[in-house]
Amino acid sequence: MYTFSVDDELAEIVKQAAQRENRSTRGQFRHLLLCALKQEQLYPINQPKGDINLSKVEGCYES
After folding, report:
1. pLDDT tens digits for the chain (63 residues)?
2. 12 part of a folded domain
3. Which superkingdom is the protein from (predicted)?
4. Domain of 48, in residue numbers
5. Residue 61 domain flag
6. What pLDDT does 44 receive?
7. CB under 8 Å to 41, separation ≥6 — which residues?
8. Phi and psi (nearest 5°) for 61?
9. What was the pLDDT predicted at 2?
10. CA 52, chain centre distance (Å)
11. Does 38 map to a domain?
12. H helices, E strands: number in the chain
């Protein structure tokens, strides 16, 4: 598998943030991805029942 060194750097950033915020690495990645999608206005506003409510994701910024 071909990888870039930046991937390793990003993975380390996510791992460190997960430790600081008491989350799993997977949970932290998901949290950061959802926040980024919301900031870029790429996260759908109308979601089917059962999908995550991003407004309840702690630490995400309102745009």
Report:
1. 555 677 888 999 999 999 999 999 999 999 999 999 999 988 887 666 556 655 555 666 554
2. yes
3. Bacteria
4. 5-56
5. no
6. 82
7. 63
8. -90, 140
9. 57
10. 12
11. yes
12. 2, 0
18 domain-assigned: yes
Angle in degrees, CA 26, 31, 44, rounded to 5: 120
pLDDT of residue 43: 86
2's tokens: 């071909």
Pseudo-torsion of CA 61, 21, 43, 54, nearest 10°?
Answer: -80
Distance (Å, whole) CA 36 – CA 32: 6
What is the domain count for the chain?
1
Can you tell me the distance from the alpha carbon of 17 to that of 49, in angstroms, rounded to the nearest whole number?
30
Interhelix angle 25-39/5-20, rounded to 10 degrees, is 100
Contact in structure between 54 and 34 (CB atoms under 8 Å): yes
